[in-house]
Every structure is written in C-alpha cells, then in structure tokens.
C-alpha cells in the first residue's frame, strides 16, 4: 500500500476507536449515537441505515472494525467532516434502482436481532416501511401501514412478504390496482391488502 493509503487507513482506525467501546472493541449503540450527533444526523435517520448497508454491518446497533473499514474505505472518507459530506452521495447511490433492492432486503435482515429469527413484528415492519420506502411510494406505504395495523391475520412479516411489498410498490398501478393479478404469485397478505383497498373504494 502506498504511504497515502496507509495514512488513510490509520486515520480510519483512529476514528473507529474514538467511538468504540473500550471493553468490547465494537462501536455499540452508545457509540453510534455519538457518531450520529457528530455527523448531525438523527439516530433513526434512514442515512444511518444506509451507512450500515455500506459497511455491510451484521448486527443492529454495532459496527466492527472490519465493517467500519469497509464502509469508510468505500466512501473514501477518513474524517468526520468528510463522512458528513459523503452522506448525500451515499443516499444517491442507495437510491439507484440496482442498489435499492439490495438495500431494501438488507434493511429487513438488519432488523433480525435474534439468532435464527426469520420474521419481524408488524409494528417494526410499519416503522421500517415508513423509513425505507415512503420517500418513493408515500401513498402505497401509508395504505399498507394502515392495513397492517388493522388486520389480524398476521402478527409478523417474513422476507418473502417484505420483498412482495417492494414489488407491489414498484409494479402495481396505485390506487386503481388495475394491473394487479391475484393469479400471479403474490404473497397472500397482498391479495388481502388489495381486497381491503377495493372494499374501501367500492
């Protein structure tokens, strides 16, 4: 590695240890909160999730040194002010269709906090939908969240249903739903959602 690169890596590592918990050697939720206030972004801001995606962070609320290096090197930043300035670019990158589907599925996996957990409770799903999808598909997300909160068939949502929501928002004309074909392989929860909308409209 050239001198510049090793200097840069050194700074990236030093930055990590500014936020890391001394005993665990990880950046933990407390460290992430400090990081958030330093980059002037709210803890619940979607850009923090985008940063986690860039690092390919595995555990919600924690960054390892390896993940930190991966993310900051990819963003080409080694100071807090550079990281702050890199966020708009990161957001643009995530919103590219080729990346967004990956980010969207990552968001689900990132929220699986227990070992062997395969699904997420409705309330958390509603928050997550609002966080990751509402800027592009406001009216669909509002309807879907409203439906999820009143229906009683499902207490949790799995990855297949989660990805189905994404496809629905991208492919189905809304609110007329004229190209929705229940014969196609949609998750049942979406068939129910469509029926619910049609009942409301009739």
Question: What does it look like?
Answer:
GO terms for molecular function: cullin family protein binding; ubiquitin conjugating enzyme binding; ubiquitin-like protein binding. It comes from Dillenia turbinata. With 202 residues, the chain is mainly alpha-helical. The chain folds into 2 domains: 3-95, EF-hand (Recoverin, domain 1), CATH 1.10.238.10; 99-201, Recoverin, domain 1, CATH 1.10.238.200. The protein is 64% helix and 3% strand. The protein has 10 helices and 2 strands, in the order H-H-H-H-H-H-E-H-H-E-H-H. The chain has helices spanning 3-19, 29-38, 46-55, 65-75, 80-95, 97-110, 122-133, 138-150, 159-171, 188-201; strands spanning 119-121, 156-158. Strands 1-2 form a two-stranded antiparallel sheet. Helix 3 (46-55) crosses helix 4 (65-75) and helix 7 runs antiparallel to helix 8 (138-150). The longest helix is centred in the N-terminal third of the chain and has 17 residues, at 3-19. The radius of gyration is 20 Å and the shape is elongated. 23% of the residues are buried.
Overall strand count: 2
Q: Report Rg.
A: 20 Å
CATH superfamily of the largest domain: Cullin, PONY binding domain
Domain unit count: 2
Biggest beta sheet attributes:
2 strands, antiparallel
Low-confidence stretches are none
Helical content stands at 55-70%
| CATH architecture annotation name of the largest domain | Orthogonal Bundle
The helix-strand sequence is: HHHHHHEHHEHH
